[in-house]
Amino acid sequence: MTMTVFGLCGAALVGIGLYGLIVQAQPLRRILAFNLLGGGVFLLFGVIARRGAVEGLGSDPVPQAMVITGIVVAFSATALAISLVVRLKETGRGDDEGSA
Amino acid sequence: MSLLLDIASVVAIAGGAFFFLAGTVGLLRFPDTLSRLHALTKADTLGLGLIVLGLLPTVDSVLTGAKLVAIWLLVQLAGASVAQLIARAARQDRPQGVPQDGPPP
Amino acid sequence: MTAGIAVDIGLAALVAAMALWTILVRDAYAAVIGFIGYGLLLALVWVRLDAVDVALTEAAIGGGVTGVLLLRAVGALHRGAAPLEDGPPPGPATRRIAALACAAVAAGLAFVVLGVSGPAPTLAPLAAEHLPATGLKNPVTGVLLAFRALDTLLEKVVLLLALIGIWSLSPDGAWGGRPTLGRPGRASDTLRFLAQLLPPVGIVVGIHVLWVGANAPGGAFQGGAVLAAMWILAMMAGLSPVPAIGRPWLRAALVIGPLAFLAVGVAGIFIADGFLAYPPAFAKPLILAIEAAITLSIAVTLAMMVAGPPQRPGAP
Amino acid sequence: MPAAALDPGLLLVLAVMLPATGAVAALALPGRWAGRIAFGLWPLGLAVAVAVAWTVWAAGAPLHYAVGGWAPPLGLMLRADGPSALMLLVAAIVIGAAGLYARADLRPEPGATESRAAVVFWTLLMALWSALNAVALGGDLFNLYVALELLTFSAIPLVCLGGSAKTLQAALRYLVFALVGSVLYLLGTALLYGAYGTLDIVLLSGRAGPEPAAILACALMIAGLAAKTALFPLHLWLPPAHAGAPPAASAVLSGLVVKASFFLIVRLWFDVMPGLSTAAAANLIGALGAGAILAGSVMALRQARLKLMIAYSTVAQIGYLFLMVPLLFGVPQAEIAANAAWSGGWLQLASHALAKAAMFLAAGLIAEAAGHDRIHGLDGVGRAVPVAVLAFTLAGLSLVGLPPSGGFAAKWLLLSAAVATGQWWWAVVMILGGLLAAFYLFPVIGRAYADGTAAFARPRDARSREFVVLALAVAAALLGLSQLYPPGLLRIGLGSGLAGAGVP
């Protein structure tokens, strides 16, 4: 039952994240949507891991390890994307004043 | 004896939960940043304190109990400091308006 | 068991509601707050799924450090001038079609993930069987540092690359200089007080999380994130200067984790069964040594990522 | 164990870890070391690639290595079959050429200790090489996800190395596409793990059947990878990103990076789920490929700037790769590797990598000589950089598909496969694509050799850079003669031994 509830939740998060990616125009909001989408994918991994529980292990450790790796990669992506957006805003301003 | 402790635990935890609820309602219902902060931090500190108090009789080792108390102290420290910082920011930013969805004061 | 189910349903509904709020709310600042709340709730979901290692990672990295990053970004992007837009927002018809398509994808996923019958395939027994060879008791650490160590090693490189990518966004004159974190010289007394009181506790917690990771939930990522948070706090409060990115000690701290990992991996060719293999007698101390080095590198990398590209020339 | 040290499978570890170590070391040392490390490593990496190809070919079977001694499904397996060996070789050659070219481009100003562009470029170039090799050799779908991310993170900052608002915008758009592509790919791996309990390619190919989980997973992964490959209509991010990067970076991005995600599509389609493909899906992928050829060529024809034209040409040339899918549909698994379309596809991948890298580098020299890259202002640029224009012309032969170039041989093989299977419509598209390529390339070449009044300056270090570009272009032009020597290399893999290789 726990797995059904969170499986539905994960699937819904994927849908919500995808929707946000399509309808949002601001880069920061897209980054948020990407993270929601990623969270949904990780949650599906988690449900699959929980389903793979055996005697003595509450959850299959292999997908758990993949999710940990994935969270760190998603963080790296978020940090890089945010720096790009911030730099883009600074540069856009700089160009207007300077080069033209 | 253990029954009495159990009852005390339940009462304390329920009381803690009530204060959390009250704090959350305050956060949602109060009109401006400062009073929202007031509701949130006061209620949460008390609420968490009661919950920790209620959990203490149920722990099986002194170390776990110490960890629970440490959590309460850390949350208090963080909550108080952050409340200070937010209040300061709210006062400084008042002219431009704080990002909030309530009506302007 | 019904109380547990009620908690699960409530939690799942809250997570989904927070996600929707993050997407739909008009104000970007409110969206970021919604996202941070979502990250913290998600950590609770991981506890309910019996994946405490992931819960710690999600709370520390997904909710915590990402939150700091996003708050800084929303401050920089949505203050003053109009925010950047990549094209006009789509009209109502597009939105409706997109909503339908996304709902279909979600439904398909739910059908596929939940529609499996029969025994679920799992590697848990295999992992449990081979775990003693690593000397560890936490199977997740075993997967990360032994069975799938190549993933973890490459992901360390990914983390460093992202930092190089962020640094590459500095203005030409500022390369080698310092990033700015907070408003230098303007930190409030409260922040300074917090930054003096919290780090000693946080450092103990971070090292504890690393140390127990061998046997209980915890490990290098989670411990590193806590240490990073402490350093960020100290830098924001102005108690510890933000280092110039060219500082040799900084560079050494960044690479020591991956290099130690690599060195042990290569040594495995000669003293064990091959690249990234551990000799059974020394597996646990070697893994702990790697984890300690990685924790330091992760802490420094995460903190520098939050600090962003260098903005002003460093001290000579 | 001394025996383990002699395991030829360690070559695969070297191919991935050698450049990665270089990238990490470059970060630790002072900036001027980054370039030196890259140049020190390059011959070693090339030697490893040659050794892998030689070992695979001589043994006639894939090479494999279980990392850490943990066999799949618990551990990770690195595997090299014929196509992987080809990828390693092409990557080593193009990376080397880009590096030699960039050495003159990025030489630090006298007195400066560490220049931003140089340090970033060399570090990322090594990381990118490691990622490409990891994609070519990865045997586990999640390990391949990490490799793909490694590739993304090394490619994105290269796009905006110049730092202008335009390139930042291009990099941001690229990042969004790449991240969404990876997340869809990751979603697919989750579904596959949930259904089959392994992500090892060989184990999966034995277990996966036409079930909803496998089909949805495959669709999601291929869609994600197609976005990363810039398959039409998901190509919009590519032209600004590839055209805005510095020449050496464009060469690597256009020549190699987009091929990595294509490589994984082939792995999925032919290795993981050979039983899953349906005619409709194969034809859809073929139709998108055909759309890419036509739309990319027409857009290239309409560009006024040289680098943008070359970038749109990449969109078109990627389309040819995807024609492999419908042309090989229905061919029995054991006969795929012997099919003309199979060698044609891989030959197209290799020759486009060489030709497009040569073309971007030549365009870099031309733009440097002219001070701009507007096509109508290039009359007579051939006098300033004659060898670069010659290289551009030779690379153009390969893109158009004239003999004896690699592009000719590739398109000939694909055409004959189309005729042999009676799918003449793909043949029409290919011929049209060749004609359009001639229409957009020859006017540029004509202008370069024409008389012009504009004054062109010879770029600094032009001689050494022109030599590099010419060598690449000659390699692309002569690739057709070789038909990919050694013979039979590409047949190693599918049906000949990858199945079963390295599985306990």
Automatic annotation (TrEMBL), chain A:
The keyword Transmembrane helix belongs to this UniProt entry's keyword annotation: yes
Membrane topology, as annotated: Multi-pass membrane protein
Family affiliation: Belongs to the CPA3 antiporters (TC 2.A.63) subunit C family.
Gene Ontology cellular-component terms listed: plasma membrane
Species for this entry: Blastochloris sulfoviridis
Pfam families in UniProt: Oxidored_q2
Residue ranges of the TM segments: 6-25, 32-53, 65-86
This protein's name: Na+/H+ antiporter subunit C
UniProtKB/TrEMBL annotation, chain B:
Protein name: Monovalent cation/H(+) antiporter subunit G
A Pfam family annotated for this UniProt entry: PhaG_MnhG_YufB
Domain of life: Bacteria
Keywords noted in UniProt: Membrane, Transmembrane, Transmembrane helix
GO molecular function, one term: sodium:proton antiporter activity
Keyword match NADP: no
TM region(s), chain numbering: 6-28, 69-87
InterPro entries: PhaG_MnhG_YufB
From TrEMBL, chain C:
Chief site of localization: membrane
Ranges where the MrpA C-terminal/MbhD domain occurs: 13-78
Keyword Ligase set for record: no
UniProt keyword list: Cell membrane, Membrane, Transmembrane, Transmembrane helix
Record's bilayer topology term: Multi-pass membrane protein
The UniProt record lists the keyword Transmembrane: yes
Membrane-spanning segments: 6-24, 29-47, 59-77, 97-116, 191-214, 220-240, 252-271, 286-307
One GO cellular component term: plasma membrane
Residue span(s) of domain Na+/H+ antiporter MnhB subunit-related protein: 191-307
Compartment list: Cell membrane
UniProt similarity note: Belongs to the CPA3 antiporters (TC 2.A.63) subunit B family.
Protein name: DUF4040 domain-containing protein
Native organism: Blastochloris sulfoviridis
UniProtKB/TrEMBL annotation, chain D:
Keyword Membrane: yes
Keyword set includes Transmembrane helix: yes
Cellular compartments per GO CC: endomembrane system; membrane
Keywords, alphabetical: Membrane, Transmembrane, Transmembrane helix
GO MF annotations in UniProt: NADH dehydrogenase (ubiquinone) activity
Domain NADH:quinone oxidoreductase/Mrp antiporter transmembrane: 139-433
Highest taxon of the lineage: Bacteria
Protein name: NADH-quinone oxidoreductase subunit J
Organism for this UniProt entry: Blastochloris sulfoviridis
